[in-house]
Protein backbone atom coordinates (compact mmCIF):
# COMPACT_ATOMS: atom_id res chain seq x y z
CA UNK A 1 0.00 0.00 0.00
CA UNK A 2 2.81 2.42 0.78
CA UNK A 3 6.42 2.93 -0.16
CA UNK A 4 8.93 1.06 1.99
CA UNK A 5 10.59 3.44 4.43
CA UNK A 6 12.48 2.41 7.55
CA UNK A 7 11.54 3.40 11.07
CA UNK A 8 8.70 2.94 13.52
CA UNK A 9 7.44 6.48 12.88
CA UNK A 10 7.07 5.74 9.19
CA UNK A 11 5.23 2.51 9.94
CA UNK A 12 2.80 4.36 12.20
CA UNK A 13 2.32 7.05 9.56
CA UNK A 14 1.61 4.35 6.98
CA UNK A 15 -0.96 2.65 9.19
CA UNK A 16 -2.71 5.94 9.97
CA UNK A 17 -2.81 6.84 6.29
CA UNK A 18 -4.21 3.45 5.34
CA UNK A 19 -7.39 4.24 7.26
CA UNK A 20 -8.08 7.55 5.52
CA UNK A 21 -6.50 7.22 2.09
CA UNK A 22 -9.88 6.70 0.42
CA UNK A 23 -11.19 9.94 1.95
CA UNK A 24 -8.06 11.79 0.86
CA UNK A 25 -8.56 10.56 -2.70
CA UNK A 26 -12.22 11.55 -2.67
CA UNK A 27 -11.25 15.02 -1.46
CA UNK A 28 -8.64 15.43 -4.21
CA UNK A 29 -10.99 14.23 -6.94
CA UNK A 30 -13.73 16.52 -5.56
CA UNK A 31 -11.45 19.51 -6.28
CA UNK A 32 -11.21 18.54 -9.96
CA UNK A 33 -10.92 15.41 -12.08
CA UNK A 34 -7.51 13.77 -11.67
CA UNK A 35 -5.60 10.79 -12.97
CA UNK A 36 -3.81 8.34 -10.68
CA UNK A 37 -0.28 9.71 -10.75
CA UNK A 38 -1.64 13.22 -10.29
CA UNK A 39 -3.25 11.99 -7.06
CA UNK A 40 0.11 10.60 -5.88
CA UNK A 41 1.77 13.95 -6.58
CA UNK A 42 -0.99 15.91 -4.82
CA UNK A 43 -0.83 13.66 -1.75
CA UNK A 44 2.94 14.12 -1.64
CA UNK A 45 2.46 17.86 -1.90
CA UNK A 46 0.26 17.69 1.19
CA UNK A 47 2.95 15.80 3.11
CA UNK A 48 1.56 12.31 2.46
CA UNK A 49 4.56 11.14 0.48
CA UNK A 50 4.37 7.50 1.57
CA UNK A 51 1.72 6.75 -1.06
CA UNK A 52 2.76 4.98 -4.25
CA UNK A 53 1.04 4.53 -7.59
CA UNK A 54 0.76 0.83 -6.75
CA UNK A 55 -1.67 1.66 -3.96
CA UNK A 56 -3.60 4.44 -5.69
CA UNK A 57 -4.73 2.65 -8.86
CA UNK A 58 -6.28 -0.39 -7.11
CA UNK A 59 -8.04 1.94 -4.66
CA UNK A 60 -9.39 4.10 -7.49
CA UNK A 61 -10.62 0.94 -9.25
CA UNK A 62 -12.41 -0.20 -6.06
CA UNK A 63 -13.94 3.24 -5.64
CA UNK A 64 -15.10 3.13 -9.26
CA UNK A 65 -16.71 -0.31 -8.76
CA UNK A 66 -18.41 1.05 -5.63
CA UNK A 67 -19.86 3.93 -7.66
CA UNK A 68 -17.99 6.67 -5.78
CA UNK A 69 -15.96 7.84 -8.77
CA UNK A 70 -16.33 7.45 -12.50
CA UNK A 71 -13.45 7.17 -14.89
CA UNK A 72 -13.21 8.80 -18.29
CA UNK A 73 -10.48 9.13 -20.90
CA UNK A 74 -9.10 12.52 -21.90
CA UNK A 75 -6.13 13.62 -23.98
CA UNK A 76 -2.85 14.03 -22.12
CA UNK A 77 -1.68 17.63 -21.76
CA UNK A 78 1.84 16.43 -22.64
CA UNK A 79 0.66 15.05 -25.97
CA UNK A 80 0.98 11.41 -24.95
CA UNK A 81 -1.75 8.80 -25.01
CA UNK A 82 -5.10 9.63 -23.39
CA UNK A 83 -5.18 9.33 -19.61
CA UNK A 84 -7.89 7.89 -17.42
CA UNK A 85 -9.23 10.62 -15.17
CA UNK A 86 -11.61 10.18 -12.25
CA UNK A 87 -14.42 12.44 -11.10
CA UNK A 88 -16.78 12.14 -8.14
CA UNK A 89 -20.27 10.78 -8.56
CA UNK A 90 -23.17 11.99 -6.41
CA UNK A 91 -22.55 8.92 -4.20
CA UNK A 92 -18.90 9.95 -3.95
CA UNK A 93 -19.86 13.44 -2.83
CA UNK A 94 -22.17 11.97 -0.18
CA UNK A 95 -19.45 9.56 0.99
CA UNK A 96 -16.94 12.42 1.25
CA UNK A 97 -19.36 14.51 3.31
CA UNK A 98 -20.05 11.59 5.66
CA UNK A 99 -16.38 10.66 5.82
CA UNK A 100 -15.30 14.21 6.67
CA UNK A 101 -17.78 14.33 9.55
CA UNK A 102 -16.60 10.95 10.85
CA UNK A 103 -12.95 12.05 10.52
CA UNK A 104 -13.62 15.30 12.42
CA UNK A 105 -15.24 13.38 15.27
CA UNK A 106 -12.47 10.77 15.34
CA UNK A 107 -9.69 13.36 15.10
CA UNK A 108 -11.14 15.35 17.99
CA UNK A 109 -11.36 12.23 20.16
CA UNK A 110 -7.76 11.28 19.38
CA UNK A 111 -6.57 14.82 20.10
CA UNK A 112 -8.34 14.79 23.46
CA UNK A 113 -6.80 11.42 24.27
CA UNK A 114 -3.27 12.37 23.21
CA UNK A 115 -3.29 15.83 24.77
CA UNK A 116 -0.36 16.37 27.11
CA UNK A 117 -1.97 16.42 30.52
CA UNK A 118 1.31 16.16 32.44
CA UNK A 119 1.46 19.94 32.72
CA UNK A 120 -2.23 20.30 33.63
CA UNK A 121 -2.96 21.28 37.25
CA UNK A 122 -3.95 18.40 39.52
CA UNK A 123 -6.53 18.24 42.28
CA UNK A 124 -5.77 17.24 45.89
CA UNK A 125 -6.45 13.56 45.05
CA UNK A 126 -3.82 13.57 42.27
CA UNK A 127 -6.32 13.66 39.39
CA UNK A 128 -5.84 16.14 36.57
CA UNK A 129 -8.37 18.92 36.50
CA UNK A 130 -10.05 20.23 33.36
Features:
130 residues; mainly alpha; three-stranded antiparallel β-sheet; 55% helix; disordered N terminus
Write the layout of secondary structure elements.
Blueprint: H1 8-31, E1 34-35, H2 36-45, H3 53-65, E2 69-74, E3 83-88, H4 90-114
Antiparallel strand pairs: 1-3, 2-3
Helix pairs in contact: 1-4, 2-3
Report the helical percentage. 55-70%
- Rounded to an integer in angstroms, the radius of gyration calculated over CA atoms is 19 Å
What is the ordering of alpha helices and beta strands?
HEHHEEH
Class from helix and strand fractions: mainly alpha
Beta-strand content estimate: 5-15%
**Uncertain runs:** 1-5
Mean pLDDT: 86
Outline type: elongated
Q: Calculate the terminal CA-CA distance, rounded to whole Å.
A: 40 Å
The total strand number stands at 3
What does the main sheet amount to?
3 strands, antiparallel
Report strand order across the widest sheet. Answer: 1-3-2
Description:
β2 and β3 (83-88) form a beta hairpin. This protein has 130 residues and is mainly alpha-helical. It is built from four helices and three strands. Strands 1-3-2 form a three-stranded antiparallel β-sheet.
Summary of the model, kept short:
By secondary structure, the chain is mainly alpha-helical.
Amino acid sequence: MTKELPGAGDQRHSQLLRGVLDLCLLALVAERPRYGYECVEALGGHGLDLVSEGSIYPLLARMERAGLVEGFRAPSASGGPPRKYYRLTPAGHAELTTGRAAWDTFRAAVCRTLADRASAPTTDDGEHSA
